[in-house]
Amino acid sequence: MPGLARASAWSGLLLLLSLAGCASVEPMSWRLPIGGPGPEPVEFLAQALAASPPQREAMWQDLRSDDPGTEQKLRVALMQSVPDHSGYNRGSAQRRLRKLLSQSLTGGQRAAASVRLHELDSATQCQVEVQDLRQRMAAVVDIERRLGKGR
Prior knowledge:
Helix content: over 70%
Largest sheet: none
Number of helices: 6
Number of domains: 1
Structural class: mainly alpha
Mean pLDDT: 79
Shape: elongated
């Protein structure tokens, strides 16, 4: 459902941006210099959510060539949670994020992983509820048809 994915992405972006200020109490000088390994996880996720499908595919391909490490594993999991590229796999992203949260992460890494995992879990729960409502609606329609034929 592209509409749900877009709405979910924007709400997640807003939530991430609102939490980004709370993720660290250190001054802004801790940021990596230009040419460093890349943006903080929250910024990376915001970029991925705002990117077009071709840009997301390019981001995914770039991640696959990076050296493995906690930061790279987190970015892979975050990127897998964003639709519209060849590496999208929500289930795998959820498993990876849960595994990463059980490890030692920096404040920014933990914030990005936990917020995105919460968002994915909420979206999954929403889809389960929508499916349940569709089944109930189909049952109601079936009952109405049978009642209509009995008249």
